[in-house]
Design brief:
Structural class: alpha+beta
Radius of gyration: 27 Å
Bound molecules: pterin cytosine dinucleotide
Strand content: 15-25%
Largest sheet: 7 strands, mixed
Helix content: 25-40%
Number of helices: 17
Shape: globular
């Protein structure tokens, strides 16, 4: 019987729960003996010319062996956005600031000490003469360049444009009874992984670099390091220790990682670095950071005729992956809806804030948040139940690929079924009745019901011929197995699921299969883990390699049993080949590995990305006197095709939902007008904890994809995408009867309270005027 689809417990957990993980800062290796420690001196000013840096006092401090500034690393290339041609490459990030510091937290120098704790004191003795320049913090100011042009060579603050805003269709909303438009904020958030960034680096006598770095794919980290150090990737070995969360922000490598490697080479000594939480909050890339203008129009019967999305993306101080996010948002702009007409454009600008990068969902949650808010605004305007408006506009079920106006090819979907399922699971009718009672009674604490429908893209790939991943499967003479994978789990449980997939084919118990990743000398190629690509590509590769291994073994078994290969059956129960009709004539798989290694490496290529979808309902209580929001329920349908391990898939949904809900009502990175971060500690950044969320109610739905033999789509980001707009819509819904139409995220008590203060009181939803905070 197949174990696929069963709740196999995570094989990773006994280790984590007993001896604990080995994170980069814990790595013990003789090559790292006597390592020096790197501490970064970071700019306290958002925008300043660096007149001079004097490290002499720091060099006299206890334990300090060296100090370096941007001038020492002036030969190294800039860290550019990974999309050449699309993003202005002059806006790349130097390893250490050269003449200009561009955000609070930007590394401007390093001090090198013998003891890790000496660095912070010594760094204070580095005397940097800053000549403050006017900062550009506000997005609107950044666009027109009035506040200043941050990269004079570029002559503009615009790092990238997606579509031509000047050529938007002036007739798009012709014939609509109702048109609603609003600018909404998809605020900047911090990834805040439990393990902050770190690195350990040493150069061998052969001139090769070995670097231990927490990352989402050692191969991508190797490429990024090679680019930043200007050396051949073949001269780098990246090793990935345990990773304590990444959420998109540990893809590739950051300037700090390159600096640590550079220091190790320069000093001929191993070097280590582990950042503080404060550094992590100001210097690791942030996520989201979009200002969106949605316009939606249609008939009073609820049919949406036209939708427009205009995106202004904050890239932060340097154009890194964040600069590219609008492209993903535009791709998914109409979501699961069959709008008659739709258009979307985007523009990315640089500001004097922390660079923006990928954060769980990267561009797709922003698309969903925009369209789901637009649908609710439209529903309120025409006075129709938002569930009915969604019902009217969702694409009908399809099993053959559907191409959208934005060029996305949705593989399969049944969006209306997901919506009906979640409404039934939530008892939507009952909730509305409860809400009506509280409204009639004028309760201080009102009930809000919000929903979202979404479709997202997982496993996107730039590779010609289709996204792909490799796997190597080996069976050993003792009956155990080893898998090498190009994916890079950091909480997703690939060790368990990849072993399940091989076990299912080979009949080797899960606990006798070792899964390895994250060493570029052992596994030179791999796409890593991001974009929820791993199962549909990496897992599919493991299954394919296992099947190919059985083919190789079959021939060996035929020779051994002096039988025809076609007459052999493989019995997974015994992990052995037997002659059909003569089970006594058999040979175990393990024996076939005795004389010659039984190993297969394969590459699985997908025809394209897959498009998971779902629908969420959130129920909140909002205190109309204090503005406090309590999240009471989240009911979620997340259809990721065939689920291979429900325990892991549910874990991903739980984590994703919590993160997404946190964006709706808690988390936000805030800067003051001078670009000083006001959320640089966990006392100020309201990181979500278990106390703020209820137990989630997960309903099952599985529409298999034909894009891989597993039938699986990605689940790693789904929770984040569906939950944010559901919670935001619920909070606004709680106050809709008072005339509140919109509250920007996060719907903090202050924002909710302010929205209430400016609400027209008893004005019915459906008035022509929109209200917000
Ligand atoms: N799975 C399944 N059936 C499916 C889909 C997935 O059983 N139909 C299982 C997979 O086998 C795997 C897990 O669910 O064990 C997630 O698989 P997948 O959807 O392929 O996503 P990835 O493994 O590629 O994970 C990436 C995704 C992303 S992009 C971010 S960001 C994210 C996330 O995963 N960051 C995380 N989840 C995280 N979880 C933790 N603990 N930490 C992070 O940093």
């Amino acid at each position: 019987m197949s174990i696929l689809g069963t709740r196999v417990l995570r094989t990773e957990d006994p280790g984590f729960l007993t001896t604990g993980g080995v994170y980069t800062d814990d790595v013990v290796d003789e090559r790292l003996a006597g390592a020096c420690h790197v501490f970064f001196v970071r700019s306290p000013i958002a925008h300043a010319r660096i007149r001079s840096i004097d490290v002499s006092a720091a060099l006299r401090a206890p334990g300090v062996s060296a100090a370096f500034t941007g001038a020492d690393l002036a030969d190294l290339p800039l860290l550019a956005a990974p999309m050449p041609g699309m993003i202005d490459e002059r806006m790349g990030q130097p390893p250490l600031a050269r003449d200009v510091a561009r955000f609070v937290g930007e590394p401007v120098a390093v001090v090198i000490t013998d003891d890790p704790y000496q660095g912070e004191d010594a760094a204070e003795l580095v005397d940097v003469d800053y000549d403050p320049l006017p900062p550009v913090i506000d997005l609107a100011g950044a666009t027109d360049g009035e506040a200043g042009v941050l990269f004079p060579d570029a002559g503009t603050n615009v790092a990238a444009s997606f579509g031509d805003a000047a050529r938007l269709n002036g007739d798009l909303f012709d014939g609509c009874d109702v048109v609603v438009t609003r600018t909404i904020v998809n605020q900047r958030v911090a990834p805040a992984p439990m393990e902050t960034r770190a690195a350990a680096a040493v150069w061998g006598e052969d001139g090769r670099l070995t670097a231990w770095i927490p990352n989402q794919g050692a191969q991508g980290t190797r490429t990024a390091l090679a680019d930043m150090l200007g050396i051949d990737p073949a001269d780098i070995r990246v090793i990935t220790p345990d990773v304590g969360g990444a959420f998109g922000a540990k893809f590739g490598a950051d300037p700090e990682h390159a600096v640590v490697c550079w220091v190790a080479r320069r000093l001929g000594r191993a070097a280590r670095w582990a950042e503080t939480r404060n550094e992590n909050l100001v210097a690791m890339t942030h996520g989201r950071a979009q200002r969106q203008t949605v316009t939606i129009g249609g008939g009073r019967d609820g049919t949406v005729a036209a939708y427009r999305l205009e995106i202004l993306q904050d890239a932060g101080a340097y154009a890194r992956f964040g600069a590219f996010l609008p492209a993903l948002t535009i791709l998914m702009a109409p979501g699961p809806y069959a709008f008659g007409r739709a258009e979307a454009v985007g523009k990315t600008v640089v500001t004097n804030t922390t660079p923006v990068g990928a954060y769980r969902g990267a561009g797709r949650p922003e698309a969903t948040a925009a369209v789901e808010r637009a649908i609710d605004l439209f529903s309120a305007e025409i006075g129709m139940d938002p569930a009915d408006v969604r019902r009217k506009n969702l694409l009908p079920k399809f099993i053959e690929p559907h191409t959208t106006a934005f060029g996305a090819v949705y593989d399969s979907g049944d969006y209306a079924a997901a919506l009906e399922k979640v409404l039934a699971a939530a008892d939507y009718q009952g909730l509305r009745e409860d809400q009506a009672k509280r409204r009639a009674a004028g309760d201080v604490v009102q009930l809000g019901i919000g929903m979202s429908c979404y479709v997202e893209i997982t496993g996107p790939g730039m590779e010609a011929g289709g996204p792909r991943e490799n796997a190597t499967v080996e069976v050993h003479p003792d009956g155990s197995g080893t898998i090498l994978t190009g994916t890079s789990p950091h909480g997703q449980g690939h060790a368990t699921v990849w072993a399940m997939l091989a076990s299912d084919e080979l009949g080797i118990p899960v606990d006798r299969i070792t899964v390895k990743w994250g060493d570029t000398d052992l596994i030179p190629e791999g796409g890593g883990t991001g974009g929820s690509r791993s199962l549909q590509q990496g897992g599919a590769a493991v299954q394919q390699a296992s099947r190919e291994l059985i083919d190789v073994a079959r021939q060996r078994a035929a020779d051994e049993l002096e039988a025809n290969a076609a007459d052999l059956v493989f019995d997974t129960g015994r992990s052995a080949f037997a002659v059909a009709g003569d089970p006594e004539a058999s040979v175990p798989l393990a024996r076939l590995a005795e004389e010659e290694r039984l190993v297969v490496r394969t590459v699985f290529t997908a025809p394209g990305p897959t498009f998971p979808f779902g629908a969420h309902v959130a129920v909140v209580e909002v205190d109309t006197e204090t503005g406090k929001v309590v999240l009471r329920r989240i009911v979620a349908v997340d259809d990721a095709g065939t689920v291979i391990n429900p325990l892991l898939a549910e874990g991903q949904r739980h984590g994703g939902i919590a993160q997404g809900a946190a964006q709706a009502f808690l988390e936000e990175v805030i800067y003051d007008a001078d670009g000083n971060p006001l959320t640089a500690t966990f006392a100020d950044y309201p990181f979500l904890s278990a106390t703020e969320v209820p137990s989630f109610e997960l309903a099952d739905m599985a529409t298999p994809t034909s894009y891989n033999p597993l039938g699986a789509k990605g689940i790693g980001e789904a929770g984040t995408i569906g939950s944010t707009p559901a919670v935001q819509n619920a909070i606004i819904d709680a106050l809709a009867h008072l005339g509140v139409r919109h509250i920007d995220m996060p719907a903090s008590p202050q924002r909710v309270w302010r929205a209430l203060q400016s609400a027209p009181g008893a004005a019915a939803a459906g008035s022509n005027e929109s209200r917000d905070a």
